[in-house]
Amino acid sequence: MFDADRWQEIFSVLKKNKLRTFFTAFGVFWGIFMLVIMHGSGTGLSNAVYDDFRDMATNSVFIWPQRTTMPYKGFQRGRYYNFRNDDTEALIKNIPEIELVAPRLVARDGRGNNNVIRGIKTGAFNINGDYPAINSIDPVNLIKGRFLNEIDIKEKRKVAVIGVRVQRELFDPGEDPISQYIRIKGVFFQVIGIFQSKRSDQQADFENQSIFIPLTTLQRTYNYGDILGWYSITSKRNIPVSVVEEKAKVLLASRHNVDPRDTRAIGSFNLEKEFNKFEGLFSGIRFLIWIVGIGTLFAGVVGVSNIMLIVVKERTREIGIMRSVGATPWNIMSQVIIEAVFLTTFAGYLGLVAGVGVIEAVNYMLIKSNASSQMFRNPEVNFGIAMIALAVLVVSGAVAGMIPALRAVKVRPIDALHDE
Length: 420
Known about the structure:
Layout: H1 4-16, H2 18-51, E1 60-65, E2 83-84, H3 85-94, E3 98-106, E4 116-118, E5 121-123, E6 126-130, H4 134-137, E7 141-145, H5 150-155, E8 159-163, H6 164-170, E9 181-184, E10 187-196, H7 202-208, E11 210-214, H8 215-221, E12 227-228, E13 230-235, H9 241-255, E14 266-270, H10 271-314, H11 316-324, H12 329-368, H13 383-409, H14 413-417
Parallel strand pairs: 6-11, 8-10
Antiparallel strand pairs: 1-13, 1-14, 2-12, 3-6, 3-13, 4-5, 4-9, 7-10, 8-11, 9-10
């Protein structure tokens, strides 16, 4: 295979008809180039979508009360009800599949009014009463200080974790908010932490102007009693969250005298179900990319095979001479196969390098321009995929040369010597 004379002969054959060699190689180049471009683009699309799920517990469901649509046990339709503190205990006690439960209560009249004051600075922010578990279900990036803990909940402490936008609007540049006090709806709270949203879309702006305080403190301080707004719930490992969702709805409906048939009385959002939808979508996209890419590559390989058939036909007399002086069938076959593999691999490698170069250039421009897109982010080519593509090229080259090689060894020396 590493015979210098053989490689000199290969290069001589390929250079003999440069235009034909170029267009043959271009077919393979374009096939692998498009495969890499489509794979990188598909990765950019999936990165943008999965970024919204990043760090979130995908085995989670969110449940909230809604107006009833059916009468039940003497209650009329259209009744509105609230979840209560004892519902939390009931969920944990009666549904063993639950891993985490995080009730939340949002302070009413929170938006649109200057509900937070510090000195002469005021702002309208989102006030959320939470449990520490919420930061395991839908986490934020804690920049400084700490998040809420169980002692804050138990002792109903007046402490707050503020978003970076809250910090910018209420505190001077360079000022440390930790241990400082802010007044939320007339009540002073001590800042114990600063956070930044992990998202990069409009939801990030919403989160960054939020304030987390202990749920129990919000209930007592602002006279909400034992009312809860909604639940964030996760299931245990290897248990579909849909199981927890179904059981939780049945339990909560029973506790609040809701008709079991009233499917609209309790709202829910199953994040696991939505995540699985996207998984199926991008699995289909990846499959389609490989089908189209390999199909394009196959067309280029067929071109290589056809050209090698022509080359074999043109070299019939030469092959006859080689056979007459003692060349074995394998010598003839290997010569043709190596030519096909070399042409396919070389052209494919250039296509791979060009494709990766284009993807990296696009990614570089996106990063340098600070472009933020909810539909396309961080396109890249997986190293394993590149190696698979190279392996496909080598195999394709061997296959492309096999048919012409078999035809070459079938040539009888006596017939080849008489070929014109």
